[in-house]
């Protein structure tokens, strides 16, 4: 489904990704772990198409097509979804209006009929309950005045609405308390299916207690330095990043 | 230094003579006073950014012909008055039949009322700050006189449709005078529209006097064509505990100017002035507002938003003058501006003059662009760039649009805004 080959990317002239290779198949859940500053968000943003990041070399194929040639909105309509580490607050644009526009843009792209306001409202209310967000959130501005945890759950809600083929979750666990983490993970687990892949990006391994990955990769200094099964995450939790000779900017224990 | 050029004498010859004598006399007197009036230049402080857009060429001097008929039938719900090139078309009007409410064309006023009106016209406007309003007084051919007796409440909004038919070139001078008695209430909508493609000038003046406890809501929509220059002025004087609520929506043109002057003359008077302006292409729009806090315990709240695209230019000049006796004044002014292209320009200037010491006065002005992170967030969900730009731009003014208290004006505004978005943001 996703095939990343020797991807290099830089931001403001500074090289951050220094040759990433990664293969993701439908149905798989991958976790990318790494200390702060290792390039996890950069990779996520590059895949979603943020123009602030410049791809200097390498290739990314998504379902056999060149992903990097496509506009951000096109990638989204074809099934790429990024749950942001820092969701953006957009006062004045209602969540409901934004989400309906997004869902209909995708439906139109796929040749499906658009949803009217009433149909969409019904769907959105159901999904908001699934992530334990009060449907009143739908009327508020996009992420406006949301707590950190509410923003993260709003991201998961959007994934549930848009039903992507590849969901990239950038630090969806950060800023969540135990209960919210459970709700968010339940949402993510609801996304798991044989034809969908999930790429989780995280600093800590605690999310992986709830969403069990098939593959774990360690990202450091812009390269994947180690890959393995879920036991790799557990080993990291035990021994810390220092075990792999990586300096963690945070100095915090890996366990969450 | 080259002497400033003066207003061509051709502009001082009024058209139609069918007004009561006292108003004809007033008009003649104003005309005489305007002889050799210097035209504003870049050096004229309150015309600094607009003088080069004001083109009072001779071809605009003659009054646009008034056929006595209006253009295509207007689908206006409720009460309405239609001006055609500055003259009211009685058969096109629909007026309330309510006791205590007088709505009459100037041309139909009896001599004593006309004499009283002649005494009062121009009294709400500062002649120096709104120079061109005096040209209206020298030229109007008709006008609308509205008087609300004490406690009279107009049960629906009154629309005043000012239609400019520019099938030939010339100028029109619509005029409005509202005398709102004690505790009376009125919602009034002024809509300026045009047809035809010849160069034209609209010089519109509206005056409001609010007696104690009167409540007037004024909605003003300026939406004439690209061939029409519009120079308008609104003057307001408020007595104790009266409320003036203003919603101005302006779409750009070759020359657009609106002066809004409000005087809070007795304790407890308050006003809210909202304004939305959008410009694109080579358009120009200039809003000059003045709020005079003359008496103590008055509140003013002003919120203006400008959006400029293409090579267009928007100007906001907001003056708040708190007089020495105006203790406990509360004045809030906010002006936010959005530039949609690198070629667009917005000039904003809050001017505060405060002579009382116990007042609350806040003002803020910002100029910004659409936020790239916000656009990326929206498009990363599959929303098109066009739609993302539209959503974010609309978000910038939506609150003000929603506050317009007349649904049909909100709708008209939204339709015009959608046209603006269509042409400003290309489809990806
Ligand atoms: N927009 C940006 N502008 C400048 N530097 C950036 C930007 N985004 C990321 N970086 C830099 O790139 C490096 C990797 O950042 P990031 O991808 O956010 O790491 P992670 O998500 O793993 O914590 C860091 O050194 C960070 O400072
Ligand atoms: Mg990150």
Structural write-up:
- The complex is a heterodimer of chains A (256) and B (428).
- Chain A has helices spanning 40-48, 72-77, 95-109, 117-130, 148-162, 178-191, 207-210, 230-239; strands at 2-11, 14-24, 29-33, 53-62, 65-66, 80-83, 90-94, 141-142, 166-170, 197-202, 215-220, 223-228.
- Chain A has 256 residues and is an alpha/beta fold.
- Chain A has a single domain (2-244), classed as 3-Layer(aba) Sandwich (Rossmann fold).
- In chain A, the strands form 3 sheets. In chain A, strands 6-9-10-3-11-12 form a 6-stranded mixed β-sheet, with helices on both faces. In chain A, strands 2-1-4-5 form a 4-stranded antiparallel β-sheet.
- In chain A, helix 6 links the parallel strand 9 (166-170) and strand 10.
- In chain A, helix 5 packs parallel to helix 6 (178-191).
- Chain A starts with a strand and ends in a 17-residue tail after the last helix.
- Residues 251-256 of chain A have low confidence and may be disordered.
- Chain B is of the alpha/beta class and 428 residues long.
- Chain B folds into 2 domains: 9-266, no CATH class; 370-428, no CATH class.
- In chain B, 18% of the residues lie in helices and 38% in strands.
- Chain B has helices at residues 21-34, 111-120, 133-139, 372-379, 385-403, 407-424, and strands at 79-84, 87-88, 101-105, 144-148, 158-165, 170-172, 175-180, 185-195, 200-210, 215-222, 228-238, 243-251, 255-264, 270-279, 284-293, 299-308, 313-322, 330-339, 345-354, 360-368.
- In chain B, a hairpin with a 2-residue loop joins strand 1 (79-84) and strand 2 (87-88).
- Chain B is globular, with a radius of gyration of 21 Å.
- The termini of chain B are far apart.
- The mean pLDDT of chain B is 94.
- Classes of the chains: A alpha/beta (256), B alpha/beta (428).
- At the A-B interface, helix 2, strand 7, helix 3 and strand 8 of A face helix 4 and helix 5 of B.
- Bound molecules: adenosine-5'-diphosphate and magnesium ion (MG).
- The site of magnesium ion has 5 residues of chain A, from helix 1.
């Amino acid at each position: 489904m996703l095939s990343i080959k020797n991807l290099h990317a830089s931001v403001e002239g500074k090289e951050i990704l220094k040759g990433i290779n990664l293969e993701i198949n439908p149905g798989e859940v991958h976790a990318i772990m790494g200390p702060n500053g290792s390039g996890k968000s950069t990779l996520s943003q590059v895949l979603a198409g943020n123009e602030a990041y410049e791809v200097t070399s390498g290739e990314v194929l998504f379902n056999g097509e060149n992903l990097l040639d496509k506009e951000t909105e096109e990638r989204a309509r074809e099934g790429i979804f990024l749950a942001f580490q820092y969701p953006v607050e957009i006062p004045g644009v209602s969540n409901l209006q934004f989400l309906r526009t997004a869902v209909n843009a995708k439906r139109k792209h796929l040749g499906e009929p658009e949803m009217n306001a009433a149909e969409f409202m019904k769907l959105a209310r159901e999904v908001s309950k699934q992530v334990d967000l009060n449907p009143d959130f739908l009327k508020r501005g996009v992420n406006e005045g949301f707590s950190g945890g509410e923003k993260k759950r709003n991201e998961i809600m959007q994934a549930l609405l848009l039903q992507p083929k590849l969901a990239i979750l950038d630090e969806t666990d950060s800023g969540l308390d135990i209960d919210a983490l459970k709700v968010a993970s339940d949402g993510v687990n609801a996304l798991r299916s044989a034809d969908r892949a999930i790429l989780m990006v995280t600093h800590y391994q605690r999310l992986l207690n709830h969403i069990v990955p098939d593959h774990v990769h360690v990202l450091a200094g812009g390269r994947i330095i180690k890959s393995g099964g879920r036991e790799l995450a557990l080993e990291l939790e035990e021994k810390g990043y220092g075990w792999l000779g990586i300096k963690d900017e945070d100095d915090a224990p890996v366990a969450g | 230094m080259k002497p400033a050029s003066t207003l061509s004498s051709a502009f001082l010859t009024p058209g139609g003579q069918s007004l009561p004598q006292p108003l004809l006399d007033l008009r003649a007197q104003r005309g005489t006073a305007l002889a050799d009036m210097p035209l504003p230049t870049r050096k004229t402080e309150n015309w600094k950014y607009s003088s080069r857009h004001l083109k009072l060429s001779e071809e605009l001097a003659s009054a646009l012909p008034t056929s006595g008929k209006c253009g295509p039938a207007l689908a206006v719900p409720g009460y309405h008055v239609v001006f055609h090139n500055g003259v009211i078309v009685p058969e096109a009007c629909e007026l309330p039949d309510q006791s205590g409410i007088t709505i009459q064309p100037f041309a139909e006023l009896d001599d004593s009322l006309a004499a009283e009106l002649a005494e009062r016209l121009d009294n709400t406007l500062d002649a120096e700050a709104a120079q061109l309003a005096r040209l209206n007084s020298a030229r109007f051919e008709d006008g609308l006189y509205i008087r609300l007796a004490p406690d009279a409440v107009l049960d629906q909004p009154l629309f005043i449709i000012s239609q400019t038919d520019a099938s030939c070139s010339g100028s029109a001078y619509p005029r409005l005078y509202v005398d709102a008695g004690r505790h009376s209430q009125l919602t009034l909508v002024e809509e300026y529209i045009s047809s035809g493609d010849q160069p034209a000038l609209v010089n519109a003046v509206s005056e409001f006097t609010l007696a104690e406890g009167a409540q007037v809501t004024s909605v003003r929509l300026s939406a004439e064509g690209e061939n029409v220059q519009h120079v308008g002025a609104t003057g307001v004087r408020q007595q104790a505990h009266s409320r003036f609520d203003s919603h101005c929506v302006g779409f750009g043109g070759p020359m657009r100017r609106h002066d809004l002057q409000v005087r809070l003359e007795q304790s407890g008077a308050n006003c809210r002035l909202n304004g939305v302006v959008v410009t694109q292409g080579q358009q120009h729009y200039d809003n000059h507002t003045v709020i005079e806090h003359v008496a103590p315990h008055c509140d003013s709240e002003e919120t203006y938003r400008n959006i400029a695209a293409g090579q267009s230019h928007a100007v906001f000049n907001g003056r708040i003058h708190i007089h020495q006796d105006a203790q406990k004044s509360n004045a809030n002014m906010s002006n936010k501006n959005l530039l949609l292209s690198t070629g667009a320009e917005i000039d904003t200037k809050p001017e505060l003059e405060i002579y009382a010491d116990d007042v609350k006065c806040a003002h803020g002005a910002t100029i910004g662009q659409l936020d790239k992170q916000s656009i990326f967030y929206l498009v990363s969900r599959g929303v098109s760039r066009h739609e993302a730009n539209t959503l974010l731009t609309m978000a910038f003014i939506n609150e003000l649009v929603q506050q317009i208290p007349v649904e049909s004006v909100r709708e008209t505004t939204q339709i015009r805004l959608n046209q603006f978005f269509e042409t400003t943001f290309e489809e990806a």
